[in-house]
């Protein structure tokens, strides 16, 4: 097979380095574009059938049409989730969409870190120390071994989270639409009623949008914690804020936020912040916000780059055999 060209959008400097290092080994010629994919940039795509996008790019129907007109047949997203891509429009246009799997340990490690920070009041403690207030926090922390953790979603990341939790000796409950691993599976309502911590690892789709909302939070234990390293819209943020304000929930640690698009991954220093959800949550001493960074490790960088190349090669080979 001749060399294959791949157009790579939204490519960070370190991503570009890995693409350039790995591509020759596979006979790939990468066309690296630092800017995110848009309808405008899609019109300047070189004559490559395969392109790659990051999860920061919102790939709308108009962009899909522009890609179709440019001769694109395959989109490989450098992420597990595809909710940033209008996959229905892609299907109508005859464009195949593929995702990548990467080490689940990055997100699993980060989830446990957020969990521990939440139950040990880390935000308040660090803020006090920064002001040279070295008194102990008025609220004592909790230990994981004394708690029940409910894991929503038992795919690769959920499974890795459960494996880590078992090492802490806590009781773990699991919920999923299909029982994928050896775990104590219970209905969602039962999980919510019995968990001191609820952590979200389901993909975002029409069925899981606001899987945690007003009704679900009502079922949760008084003072429970919510951890979200999945997608922001898994939680009804208005319901979350109200439950934090009235004390129903003991705290939250969120690496993703509903409406984060156009905010996370941008330097907003010196600019007025008009995201009311973010402003309210940040003002709370028991809420930790980080900017969708759980996946951001060196190992994941290598994994996503390699899998992107393999996806595009496999697609080209499938065309050659038609």
Structure notes:
The chain has 322 residues and is of the alpha/beta class. The chain is 38% helix and 15% strand. The strands form two sheets. A six-stranded parallel beta sheet has the order 7-6-8-9-10-11, with helices on both faces. Helix 1 packs across helix 12 and helix 5 packs across helix 7. The longest helix has 23 residues. It is globular and about 65 Å long. The two termini are 15 Å apart.
Topology, number of strands? 11
Terminal-residue CA separation: 15 Å
Largest sheet: 6 strands, parallel
Low-pLDDT residue intervals, each spanning 5 or more residues = none
Describe how the helices and strands are arranged.
Layout: E1 4-8, H1 13-26, E2 28-32, H2 39-42, E3 50-53, H3 61-69, E4 74-77, H4 87-92, E5 96-98, H5 105-119, H6 122-130, E6 148-152, H7 156-168, E7 171-175, H8 188-194, E8 197-200, H9 214-219, E9 224-228, H10 237-245, E10 249-254, H11 276-282, E11 287-289, H12 298-320
Parallel strand pairs: 1-2, 1-3, 3-4, 4-5, 6-7, 6-8, 8-9, 9-10, 10-11
Describe the structure concisely for a colleague.
The chain is an alpha/beta fold and 322 residues long.
Using brief descriptors, characterize the structure shown.
single chain, alpha/beta, 11 strands, globular, 322 residues
